[in-house]
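Need EmrB/QacA subfamily drug resistance transporter's 3D structure for a figure. Predict it.
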Amino acid sequence: MVAVSPDYASRLRYAWKVVSVTSLGLVLIGIAGSTLNVALPTVVRHFRAGPFESGWILLAFLLVNTASLVFFGRVADLLGRREIYLAGFALFTVASLLAGFSPNVWFLVAMRVVQAIGAAMILANGTVIITDAFPPDRLSQGMGVYIGTLSVAQLAGPTLGGLIADTAGWQWIFWVNVPAGVIALVWGAVTLRKMPRGPREPVDALGNVLVFAALSGVLLALSEAGSRGLSSPVVITGAAVFLVLAPLIVVVERRASHPVLNMGLFAGRMLACANLASLCNALARSALILVVALYFQSARGLDAFTAGLSVLPVPVGMALASPIAGALGRRLSPYALSIGGSVFSALGLGTLMLTADPATPYWIIGVGLFLAGCGSGTFLTGNTTQVMTALPAGSLGVVNGFRIMIMNVGVVLSVGMSLSLITSSVGPELRDQVYAATLAKLSPVAVDQLMTGFQRAYTVLFAVALLGTLLAALARTPRTRSLGAE
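Structure prediction for EmrB/QacA subfamily drug resistance transporter:
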C-alpha cells in the first residue's frame, strides 16, 4: 500500500468538497435546460406563441450564455473566481423566480437572458475551480464525477419537466430552480476558498460584442431557414451579418492585446482538434433530448410526462458512463476515452436514423438514445481532462471560458439547426402545431411529412458525430507538455 502524505489527503478532501459545490451548479443548469426541453409545448400553448417566439425561448439562453462565457472567464481572473462563481448562483436563482411570474412570452425570454448570464458565470469557472483543487493524478476522477452530475440533472430533468407541465403548471418549471439555487449559493459560500487572482489585464469588450453579433446572425439564419426558406430576407440578413463579421473578428482579435478569441493558445494540432471534436460532439448531442421529446409529443401524441420518461436512456447512459470513464482515466489516456466516446455517440445517432417512423418499436429508439448518452459521458470526461491538463496554469480562466464557448456554439447551432430541419418538412400553417405538440391530433398526413424532418435532423447529427470521431482521433496528445508542441 502506497503511503499518502497528510497534505495530499487534505487537498483531496477539499477537492471532493469542491466537486460537490460545482456539481450543484451543473445540476442547477442541467435541470433548468432539460425540464424546459420537454415542457416547451406546454409553455408555448400557455402564451400562444408562434414558431419564432417558441424557438427563442430556448435560443436566447443558449446565445447569451455562449457569447458571455469567455467574458466571465476574464472577469473572474480579475475580480476573483469564487466571487464571480457565487454571483452566478445568485443571479440564476433570482431570474428563475421572476421567470415564473412572466406576464408574456417576451418577458420570459428576457428572464432567460438573465439566467444565461448567471449560468455563464457558473460554467466559465466550475472546471477551473476543480482543476485547481485536485492533484493532477486524480483530476480525471474529479472530472468524471463532475460531468456525471450533469447526467443526473438530465436524468431527473425530462421526467420532472413532464410531470410539472402536466400537474403543477409551467411556472414551476422555473420555480423548482429556486431552492436548489439557494442551497448551492450557501454551500458554495461556506466551502470554496479564495483563489489567487489572475493578472489585471483588460477585457476585450469589442471582441465580445463582435462575437455576440456574429453568433446572433448565424443563429437567426439557422433558426428561420426552415420556417421561412433560404430566400427569406431574415435568413439572408442573418447570414450576411455573420459572413461580414467573421473576417472582421479575425482581424480585430489579432490586434487585441488580450483577445476574447486567443487563437494562439489553440495553435497546436492536439488542442485545435480536441476543441473542434468538442464542437462536433456538442452539435451532435445537444438537441437530442429536445428532438426526441418533440418526436414523442408531436408525432406520437404522447403527453409531456410520458415523453420525458421516453428520453431517459440518454441521461442514464451519461450517468453510467461518466464516472466509469473517470475511473478508467487512471488506466486509459484521455485521448483513448475521447475516441471511444465519439464512436459510441456516432453509433447511437446512426441507430436513431432508422427510427424516424411513428411505428418504430421503442426498444430500438431506446438503444440509440442509450448509446448516444454513453458516448457523450465518456467523450466529455476524456476531452475535458485532455484539454485542461495541456494548458498552462496562468491561462486556465480565459481558455476554459473559450473552451466552453466553443462547445456551447455547438449547442446553439444544434438546437437552431435541428428545429429548422424538423419544421422544414411541413407547411407554414402547421409549424405552430409542431411546437405546441398538437400535430398528431390534427393530421396523419402531416405527421408523415414531419417524419421527413426528423430523418433529416438525425442524418445531419450522425454526420457531425462521424466528423467529431475523426477529429478526436487526430487530437493525439504530444509528448511535450509545452503549449502548441507537436
